[in-house]
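Still learning. Any example?
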Amino acid sequence: MEDSFDPVRDLEERRREARRAVEEAGGGESEGFELAEHDLIDAVKAVGEGKAFFSPAISKMLVEDYMRQMRERKVEDSYELLTNREREVLQLVAEGKSNKEVANLLNLSLYTVETHRTHILQKLNLHSVPELILYAVRKGIIS
């Protein structure tokens, strides 16, 4: 009998691997590693599509580590740290679109848009949407 793909089993295996990686990276007992219900739904969807999924805690660790590496390499313009998708989200948010509107326009989940916004603010060292809009105007992203 052929072994069929089981997204829940695959998710659980990836979760165990991620937990081990966090602990090996100095995350101790991997505090806060449990997923909220909406995280679990997004995780199952992502795994079912063959994509990776990281909890908010893991995403934050990855972004912080990436930012540290970029600072060590002396990357000047933090805009260059943004992914193409983050740049799309930045432009739409700066244009005044709500998270829900951005999600619908880019065919993303609301949670994914919120995650992109968080990463954008972290990478650009901004603390609010008004700061993000001002940044976008100065950068020529919006007029």
Residues 1-53 form one domain. The mean pLDDT is 77. Residues 68 and 76 are 13 Å apart (CA to CA). The longest helix spans residues 7-27.
